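User: Second chain of the day. Same drill as before.
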Amino acid sequence: MSRIALVTGGTRGIGLATATALLDAGHRVAVTYRREPPTGLDAFAVQADVTDMASMVAAVAAVESELGVVEILVCNAGTTDDRLLLRTDEESFGAVVDTNLTGAFRAVRAVAPKMVRNRWGRIILVGSVVAGTGSAGQVSYASSKAGLTGMARSLARELASRSITANVVAPGPVATDMLAALTDDRRDAIAEAVPLGRIGEPREVAAAIAFLASEDAGYITGTVLNVDGGLGMGGF
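Assistant: Same format as last time:
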Protein backbone atom coordinates (compact mmCIF):
# COMPACT_ATOMS: atom_id res chain seq x y z
CA MET A 1 0.00 0.00 0.00
CA SER A 2 1.34 3.42 -0.93
CA ARG A 3 1.84 5.82 1.97
CA ILE A 4 3.18 9.35 2.36
CA ALA A 5 6.64 9.43 3.92
CA LEU A 6 8.84 12.23 5.22
CA VAL A 7 12.59 11.71 5.71
CA THR A 8 14.47 14.44 7.54
CA GLY A 9 18.00 14.96 6.30
CA GLY A 10 17.29 13.08 3.09
CA THR A 11 19.96 14.55 0.83
CA ARG A 12 22.83 12.11 1.32
CA GLY A 13 24.05 8.97 3.05
CA ILE A 14 21.48 7.01 5.02
CA GLY A 15 18.77 9.61 4.47
CA LEU A 16 19.12 9.55 0.71
CA ALA A 17 19.26 5.75 0.66
CA THR A 18 16.14 5.63 2.82
CA ALA A 19 14.23 8.00 0.56
CA THR A 20 15.21 5.83 -2.41
CA ALA A 21 14.14 2.62 -0.65
CA LEU A 22 10.77 4.11 0.28
CA LEU A 23 10.24 5.29 -3.29
CA ASP A 24 11.10 1.80 -4.53
CA ALA A 25 8.48 0.42 -2.14
CA GLY A 26 5.86 2.55 -3.87
CA HIS A 27 5.50 5.33 -1.32
CA ARG A 28 5.24 9.04 -2.06
CA VAL A 29 8.25 10.60 -0.40
CA ALA A 30 9.30 14.02 0.85
CA VAL A 31 12.76 14.89 2.18
CA THR A 32 14.03 17.84 4.14
CA TYR A 33 17.28 19.63 3.44
CA ARG A 34 19.10 22.55 5.02
CA ARG A 35 21.22 23.98 2.20
CA GLU A 36 21.06 22.13 -1.12
CA PRO A 37 18.13 19.98 -2.31
CA PRO A 38 18.97 16.49 -3.55
CA THR A 39 19.44 15.93 -7.25
CA GLY A 40 18.21 12.95 -9.24
CA LEU A 41 15.68 11.93 -6.58
CA ASP A 42 11.99 11.70 -7.49
CA ALA A 43 10.85 13.10 -4.15
CA PHE A 44 9.38 16.36 -2.92
CA ALA A 45 12.19 18.37 -1.30
CA VAL A 46 11.47 21.01 1.32
CA GLN A 47 13.93 23.19 3.17
CA ALA A 48 13.76 22.79 6.93
CA ASP A 49 15.83 23.19 10.08
CA VAL A 50 15.15 20.57 12.74
CA THR A 51 16.53 22.94 15.39
CA ASP A 52 13.59 25.29 14.79
CA MET A 53 10.05 24.22 15.60
CA ALA A 54 8.42 26.79 13.32
CA SER A 55 10.58 25.58 10.45
CA MET A 56 9.51 21.97 10.98
CA VAL A 57 5.83 22.90 11.25
CA ALA A 58 6.10 24.88 8.00
CA ALA A 59 7.89 21.99 6.28
CA VAL A 60 5.21 19.49 7.31
CA ALA A 61 2.52 21.89 6.10
CA ALA A 62 4.29 22.12 2.73
CA VAL A 63 4.43 18.31 2.48
CA GLU A 64 0.74 18.06 3.33
CA SER A 65 -0.09 20.61 0.66
CA GLU A 66 1.99 18.82 -1.98
CA LEU A 67 1.48 15.12 -1.11
CA GLY A 68 -0.99 14.77 1.75
CA VAL A 69 -0.79 13.90 5.45
CA VAL A 70 2.49 12.34 6.57
CA GLU A 71 2.00 8.70 7.53
CA ILE A 72 5.63 7.57 7.75
CA LEU A 73 8.24 9.71 9.51
CA VAL A 74 11.95 8.90 9.42
CA CYS A 75 14.00 11.14 11.72
CA ASN A 76 17.44 10.95 10.15
CA ALA A 77 18.78 14.51 10.34
CA GLY A 78 21.73 14.64 12.69
CA THR A 79 25.15 16.01 13.47
CA THR A 80 28.22 15.25 15.52
CA ASP A 81 30.97 17.28 17.14
CA ASP A 82 33.47 14.71 18.35
CA ARG A 83 35.57 15.89 21.29
CA LEU A 84 36.96 14.32 24.42
CA LEU A 85 34.95 15.20 27.51
CA LEU A 86 37.50 17.69 28.86
CA ARG A 87 37.39 19.55 25.55
CA THR A 88 33.60 19.54 25.28
CA ASP A 89 31.89 22.72 26.38
CA GLU A 90 28.23 23.17 27.17
CA GLU A 91 27.52 24.92 23.86
CA SER A 92 28.97 22.07 21.81
CA PHE A 93 27.15 19.42 23.83
CA GLY A 94 23.86 21.29 23.64
CA ALA A 95 24.08 21.85 19.89
CA VAL A 96 24.44 18.12 19.17
CA VAL A 97 21.60 17.18 21.52
CA ASP A 98 19.39 19.94 20.09
CA THR A 99 19.81 18.60 16.56
CA ASN A 100 19.79 14.86 17.15
CA LEU A 101 17.36 14.46 20.04
CA THR A 102 15.25 17.59 20.31
CA GLY A 103 15.22 17.81 16.52
CA ALA A 104 13.59 14.39 16.36
CA PHE A 105 11.03 15.53 18.95
CA ARG A 106 10.18 18.55 16.81
CA ALA A 107 9.61 16.41 13.74
CA VAL A 108 7.48 13.90 15.64
CA ARG A 109 5.48 16.65 17.31
CA ALA A 110 4.74 18.23 13.94
CA VAL A 111 3.31 15.07 12.36
CA ALA A 112 1.82 13.18 15.33
CA PRO A 113 -1.54 14.96 15.69
CA LYS A 114 -2.75 13.89 12.24
CA MET A 115 -1.31 10.40 12.64
CA VAL A 116 -3.40 10.11 15.79
CA ARG A 117 -6.46 11.45 14.02
CA ASN A 118 -5.99 8.99 11.13
CA ARG A 119 -5.21 6.10 13.49
CA TRP A 120 -2.14 4.90 11.59
CA GLY A 121 1.52 5.82 11.52
CA ARG A 122 5.13 4.70 11.45
CA ILE A 123 7.80 6.65 13.32
CA ILE A 124 11.41 5.52 12.81
CA LEU A 125 14.24 7.29 14.61
CA VAL A 126 17.77 6.80 13.28
CA GLY A 127 19.99 6.14 16.29
CA SER A 128 23.47 4.68 16.49
CA VAL A 129 25.29 1.66 17.84
CA VAL A 130 27.22 4.01 20.16
CA ALA A 131 24.01 4.63 22.11
CA GLY A 132 24.48 1.18 23.63
CA THR A 133 28.26 0.80 23.52
CA GLY A 134 29.49 4.30 24.20
CA SER A 135 32.39 5.82 22.29
CA ALA A 136 35.38 7.81 23.50
CA GLY A 137 35.18 11.32 22.12
CA GLN A 138 31.45 11.09 21.45
CA VAL A 139 29.83 11.99 24.75
CA SER A 140 27.38 14.41 23.12
CA TYR A 141 26.61 12.20 20.12
CA ALA A 142 26.15 9.00 22.14
CA SER A 143 23.99 10.81 24.69
CA SER A 144 21.74 12.26 22.00
CA LYS A 145 21.34 8.92 20.24
CA ALA A 146 20.67 7.06 23.50
CA GLY A 147 17.89 9.55 24.21
CA LEU A 148 16.12 8.45 21.04
CA THR A 149 15.57 5.00 22.56
CA GLY A 150 13.69 6.46 25.51
CA MET A 151 11.76 8.69 23.15
CA ALA A 152 10.73 5.84 20.86
CA ARG A 153 9.66 3.59 23.71
CA SER A 154 7.60 6.35 25.31
CA LEU A 155 6.00 7.15 21.97
CA ALA A 156 5.30 3.46 21.45
CA ARG A 157 3.36 3.29 24.70
CA GLU A 158 1.50 6.56 24.14
CA LEU A 159 0.49 5.98 20.53
CA ALA A 160 -0.05 2.23 20.27
CA SER A 161 -3.81 2.51 20.71
CA ARG A 162 -3.89 4.55 17.48
CA SER A 163 -1.98 1.91 15.46
CA ILE A 164 1.14 4.08 15.43
CA THR A 165 4.47 2.33 15.91
CA ALA A 166 7.73 3.94 17.02
CA ASN A 167 11.10 2.26 16.63
CA VAL A 168 14.81 2.99 16.44
CA VAL A 169 17.19 1.76 13.76
CA ALA A 170 20.73 1.88 15.12
CA PRO A 171 23.42 1.76 12.44
CA GLY A 172 26.99 0.76 13.09
CA PRO A 173 29.87 2.03 10.94
CA VAL A 174 28.41 2.89 7.54
CA ALA A 175 30.04 4.22 4.38
CA THR A 176 28.91 7.84 4.64
CA ASP A 177 30.66 11.21 4.43
CA MET A 178 31.35 11.04 8.17
CA LEU A 179 33.34 7.83 7.79
CA ALA A 180 35.00 9.02 4.58
CA ALA A 181 36.58 11.88 6.54
CA LEU A 182 38.64 9.41 8.59
CA THR A 183 42.08 8.11 7.66
CA ASP A 184 42.38 4.74 5.90
CA ASP A 185 44.04 3.26 9.00
CA ARG A 186 41.20 4.44 11.21
CA ARG A 187 38.55 3.03 8.87
CA ASP A 188 40.41 -0.28 8.73
CA ALA A 189 40.54 -0.42 12.53
CA ILE A 190 36.81 0.25 12.74
CA ALA A 191 36.05 -2.48 10.21
CA GLU A 192 38.20 -4.97 12.14
CA ALA A 193 36.16 -4.30 15.29
CA VAL A 194 32.95 -5.31 13.52
CA PRO A 195 32.25 -9.06 13.83
CA LEU A 196 31.28 -9.23 10.16
CA GLY A 197 34.59 -7.56 9.36
CA ARG A 198 33.37 -4.75 7.14
CA ILE A 199 31.75 -1.35 6.95
CA GLY A 200 28.04 -1.29 6.20
CA GLU A 201 26.35 0.34 3.21
CA PRO A 202 23.62 3.00 3.49
CA ARG A 203 21.22 0.79 1.51
CA GLU A 204 21.48 -1.90 4.22
CA VAL A 205 20.28 0.54 6.86
CA ALA A 206 17.63 1.87 4.50
CA ALA A 207 16.27 -1.64 3.96
CA ALA A 208 15.68 -2.04 7.71
CA ILE A 209 13.97 1.35 7.87
CA ALA A 210 11.76 0.52 4.88
CA PHE A 211 10.68 -2.72 6.56
CA LEU A 212 9.73 -0.96 9.80
CA ALA A 213 7.74 1.52 7.69
CA SER A 214 5.80 -1.27 6.00
CA GLU A 215 2.38 -2.77 6.67
CA ASP A 216 4.09 -6.04 7.67
CA ALA A 217 5.83 -4.33 10.62
CA GLY A 218 2.61 -3.36 12.36
CA TYR A 219 3.30 -5.60 15.37
CA ILE A 220 6.79 -4.19 16.01
CA THR A 221 7.02 -1.15 18.26
CA GLY A 222 9.34 0.19 20.95
CA THR A 223 12.29 -1.80 19.62
CA VAL A 224 15.87 -0.97 18.67
CA LEU A 225 16.97 -2.70 15.48
CA ASN A 226 20.76 -2.73 15.21
CA VAL A 227 22.17 -2.71 11.68
CA ASP A 228 25.79 -2.87 12.71
CA GLY A 229 27.44 -6.10 11.64
CA GLY A 230 27.21 -7.36 15.22
CA LEU A 231 29.22 -4.52 16.76
CA GLY A 232 26.56 -3.58 19.29
CA MET A 233 25.72 -7.01 20.66
CA GLY A 234 24.86 -6.66 24.33
CA GLY A 235 23.92 -2.98 24.06
CA PHE A 236 20.38 -1.72 24.43
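The chain has one domain: 4-173+204-227.

User: Great, on to the next one.
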